[in-house]
Request: fold
Amino acid sequence: MLTDVELEAVVAEGIIDAGQAKQLAAFLANRSNGDPWRVEEDETAETEDVRFARGFHDIFIAVGVGLLFVGLTTAGSVTDNLTLVLAVSTVVALGLAEFLAGKRRLVLPSIVLCLAFMLCAAGAVGSALDQKFSGLFRTGDGVSLMAMSLTGIAAALIFYLRYRLPFALGVLAAGGVALALSVLLLIDPDIVENYSIPIFLIAGLCVFAAAMAFDISDPGRKTLRADNAFWLHLLAAPLLVHSILAFVSTGQDTGHELAGAGAVIAVFLALALVALLVDRRAMLVVGLGYFGAAIATVIGEASDEAGTVAAITLIILGIGVVALGSGWQATRALLFRILPLSGDVSRKLPPVRGKS
Reply:
């Protein structure tokens, strides 16, 4: 979609007049369901294509924005005015966002600004409650965490509603997870410590369900609902994978490493099946470390040479990732043929596209 700056340039060149520019902007907004971040894509293109930058210009500005806010927070910490500096930084972040996110639609700088806005706002509230950052995350300090979580959620919601940046939705979900943890800490600090695996599993399932709701509403991934889903999947993946594989690994005796490795491999393959069906790779990326460790355990039964085990493990992982990545859509097509999926379920899943 054309940005406001591009439309102004077209008008300045005399190609169209201001009235026609407004009509064109309305037409493009209507085609993208009112979402100005939408990027037109080829029907045969990969369906998990998320654009972060349109060129090194975007990266350059994002680096500058990052340096600015690191400098501001550093200044606050060395001048003993952290709360005030963070509050001012919050306003600065929103002001810059009006230009870079609202007017220019620069994705990567907007992502950095979203993080800066949320973190500075939450940090200002947390610092007001506790002047030392080292005390913000003490075990059982649910009040500080809850206040920061609520502020972060509000900031992310403001950013999402104002600019419709998909990344902000992922930040919003992360704030929701943090808020749930803060409530549990207030109820009983030992709950999080003793039941961390089921807690993060439930959180992951909730975020995954939200991501799938967006995916199901746009199986062809023609709107930025697909990008909304991408960021939610990116948050859900570590929550799900780490909790599930940690649960599988828990209780494995030192004499049963091979059985434990086999269980991890089986779970990873099940997650890979889900990833292929929903056409999202985040679960696989997050689970590669566990999968590699499990393969190394199996190979270690045949060889005591650490270098040999590491080399063979990396080669197997590399071949597997390259093969699956290159034949992703072909593998999905095969699964759709062999799995007993109903027509209704198949229609809600992303269709097989392209030749990858």
